[in-house]
Q: What sequence folds into this?
């Protein structure tokens, strides 16, 4: 009988404890994810600025510069964060389109 009472009180205590922690943890993760997405956007803009400011003489150099920008994106591939990857790509492309539309047209070909 004592084991039943002890097990019941333990189950009630755990059921009260875990939902309250889970809600707080979910909120903190949401804040962290938003901060990571914003950091990925800043990284994408930074990579685009570096790409725009470099000059190249042929398409091979252009491809090399694109690969350099791609290596900066790898950190978001390895941690499996699709929103961060999308934010990086979007910021990279929109920065190039805004600052140097001629380069954007050349990249679309």
A:
């Amino acid at each position: 009988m004592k084991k039943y009472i002890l097990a019941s009180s333990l189950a009630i205590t755990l059921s009260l404890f875990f939902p309250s922690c889970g809600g707080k943890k979910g909120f903190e993760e949401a804040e962290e994810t938003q901060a990571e997405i914003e950091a990925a956007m800043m990284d994408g803009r930074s990579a685009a600025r570096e790409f725009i400011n470099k000059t190249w003489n042929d398409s091979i150099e252009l491809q090399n510069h694109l690969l350099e920008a791609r290596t900066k994106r790898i950190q978001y591939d390895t941690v499996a964060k699709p929103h961060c990857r999308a934010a990086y790509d979007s910021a990279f492309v929109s920065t190039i389109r805004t600052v140097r539309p001629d380069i954007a047209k050349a990249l679309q070909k």
